[in-house]
Amino acid sequence: MRIFLVGMMGSGKTTLGRQLAQWLNYAFVDLDEHIVQQQGQSIAQIFEQQGQEYFRKLERQALEELVQKYERVVISTGGGAPCFFDNIYFINLHGESFFLDVPVEELVQRLLTQGQEERPLLAGKNIAELKSYLTETLTYRRQFYERAKHTISENSLSPESILSLLNL
Ligand SMILES: Nc1ncnc2c1ncn2[C@@H]1O[C@H](COP(=O)(O)OP(=O)(O)OP(=O)(O)O)[C@@H](O)[C@H]1O
Ligand SMILES: O=C(O)C1=C[C@@H](O)[C@@H](O)[C@H](O)C1
Ligand SMILES: [Mg+2]
């Protein structure tokens, strides 16, 4: 089985994905980290030097490569990954998807305390700007995230709740 975690920046995809892969004894891939390693550039550098559009193409290519390569894997996607091209359909075609649905107030707290620097879309924003950016972005992205096969709310972000949704 392939398990994909989707949701906003700061929703906990990397943290939970790593834990879940350990539980299942599956491979773990963080899509952002995978792209950074493959390109030898940080996400911020890719955005700056080649642009966001190029980054979105890299995300799609990486998704295609990873489903070819792995059958038992947990993939934590980047915050925007399911919202470009037909990526969310591609994800659903190749595995079980989970939307980590965390309220904006909580995202703001987490992202303020955990460096905005590696997240180019958040860099340089103050708390009010961060909040309005996340609110607007989530309002638009929800239509994609909600196409995930399962939704997990903030208070059940654990490997156990994912396993029980999968009847494992
Ligand atoms: N369940 C949780 N409760 C509280 N804090 C959490 C939880 N999960 C993750 N965090 C914290 O929130 C921050 C963001 O988590 P993480 O990096 O896993 O999010 P992400 O969804 O992968 O974000 P991005 O899309 O930017 O990669 C980290 O500081 C992490 O320690
Ligand atoms: O929400 C987004 O668009 C992004 C989220 C991160 O995971 C990275 O993929 C990148 O910083 C863009
Ligand atoms: Mg992450």
TrEMBL record:
The keyword Metal-binding applies. GO terms for biological process: amino acid biosynthetic process; aromatic amino acid family biosynthetic process; chorismate biosynthetic process. It is an enzyme of class 2 (transferase). It comes from the Bacteria. It is found in: Cytoplasm. Monomer. Its cofactor is Mg(2+). This is Shikimate kinase. It holds the Pfam family SKI. Catalyzes the specific phosphorylation of the 3-hydroxyl group of shikimic acid using ATP as a cosubstrate. Coiled coil: none annotated. ATP binds at G10, S11, G12, K13, T14, T15, R119. Binds 1 Mg(2+) ion per subunit. One of its GO terms (cellular component) is cytosol. Mg(2+) binds at T14. Belongs to the shikimate kinase family. The keyword Cytoplasm applies. It catalyses: shikimate + ATP = 3-phosphoshikimate + ADP + H(+).
